[in-house]
Amino acid sequence: MCLVYGLNYLDKTTLSYASIMGIKKPHSDDKLTSGIDLTGNQYSWLGSMFYFGYLAWEYPTNRLLQRLPLGKYSAFNIIMWGLVLSCFAAVENYAGAIAIRFFLGVFESAVTPGFALFTSQWYTKKEQGTRTGIWFSFNGFAQIFGGLVAYGIAVGTQKHGTSIEPWKIVFLVTGLLTMCMGIVFLFIIPDNQMNARWLSKEDRLLAIERIRINQQGVGNKHFKWYQLQEALLDPLSWAFFFYALVADIPNGGISNFFSQLIVGFGYTPQQSLLYGTPGGAVEVVFLIVCGYLGDRFGHRILISSFGLVVAIIGMVLIVALPLHNNKGRLAGYYLTQASPTPFVALLSLISTNVAGYTKKTTVAAMYLVGYCAGNIIGPQTFRASDAPRYVPAEVTIIVCWGVCLFDLAFIHLYCIHQNKKKAKVRYAPEYERLENQEWLDLTDKENPEFVYTL
C-alpha cells in the first residue's frame, strides 16, 4: 500500500517535473526538441483536468469498491492508471494531453477511498491514524524519489543525448513502474481477511476478531438508502467535505507549480528538481510523527493542526521575504509541506468515526469530491501573468489554511458533543445492548456503543 500510494502521488506530479523538462516548448519538426506548445493558462488547465476525471468517477468508483472484490478492483485501477500515464509519452498536442489527464483521474479515483477501506478493515481504531499516516507519507517519499529520478534523467540526457525527449522518459518510467506494482498488488493484497492467502485459517479468524472493537463489521455489499440519507444529513460529513474543498485549493496549486515556484526563487530548472526533494522529507516526518502522536494521546485533530500552522508560517515567508532572499523563501516552501497532516487525520477519521458501510463509502466519496473541487480551483489561482512571484495565489493559500483551522475546531467540538450524548444513552437504566451489535453494519448514529475518536 505504501509503495502504490507513493506512485499515486508521483504520477499526479510528474506533470510538474515535465513542465521544466521541455513539455511546454513549442512543437517543431525536430523530434528531439518537440514539446506540446502550451500557451497562456493551458498548463493550469492540464493540472485541473486530472481532478475533473477524479470528480466524475469518484462516487461510482466508491460504489464499485463496495460491490466488487476490494483487492482485485483496486489492482485493476492501479494497472490501468499506469498504462494511461505511459501513453503520455506519445502525446503530441494539448488535446491529447487533456484526454490523458482526464482518464488518469478516473483510474486514480479508486485509490484513496480504497486504501481507507483497507485500513478500517484490517486495523483497530487506535491503529488507524498511524497506519493512514504511514501509507500517506509515501507522498513525501515519492517527491524525493521523483525529484531525484527527474534530475538524473535531465542531467543524463543533457550530457549523453537521447532519442526521445527527457519529459517523455519521465512518463514512461513512472507509468511502467506503476503497472508492475499493480500486478504485484493483485497477487498480494486480499479482498478481506477470509481470502488472505498468507494467513492460516486460524489467523484469518483472529484477524477478524481483533477488529470487533471497531463496532463497524468487516464490510457489507448491500446498498442501504437510509445510510446514504444519514450521510447527507450529518453535519460531520459536510465538515469533512468543507475541509477537503478549502484545504485542497492550496494543494492543487502547490503540487502542480512547486517546480516553477522554486525556479521563481532564483534557481535553475535542474536545481529546482533537486531542491524540491527535501520538501518530501518534511512531509514524511510530519505525517508519521503526527499520526503516531494523534493515536498515542487520542487527539488526532488537534495534533495534526500543528502541521497546518507550520505550513501557514512557511507560506508567509514565501510572500513576505524579498526576491533576493532565495534561501529563506525555499525554506518557507519546505515548511508548507507539513500542510497535509490534517487532511490525513480526517481521512483516518472517516475510517474510524463513520460506521455503516454504505455511509462510510458515501462520506469518503463526499470528502474526495471536495478534494477534487479544491484541486481543480487551485491551479487556476496561479495565473501566468503573476509569474514569477504568484503573490495572489500565495495569499489565497494563507487564507484557505486559516479557514481550515476553524473547520478543524468545529469537528473536534462536534465529536466531543456526540460522545457525551451517546454516554447518556448507554448509562440510562432502560438501555439494553444488542447481541453481536458490532457486526450488524449499524451507522455511528445508530449505535449507542460507538465512540467517536478525537
UniProtKB/TrEMBL annotation:
GO terms for molecular function: transmembrane transporter activity. Pfam families: MFS_1. Keywords: Membrane, Transmembrane, Transmembrane helix, Transport. Residues 1-454 form the Major facilitator superfamily (MFS) profile domain. The keyword Transmembrane helix applies. It is found in: Membrane. CDD domains: MFS_FEN2_like (cd17327). InterPro entries: MFS, MFS_dom, MFS_trans_sf. The chain crosses the membrane at residues 73-91, 97-120, 132-154, 169-189, 231-253, 273-294, 301-324, 330-350, 362-383, 395-416. GO terms for cellular component: membrane. Belongs to the major facilitator superfamily. Allantoate permease family. This is Membrane transporter. It comes from Mytilinidion resinicola.
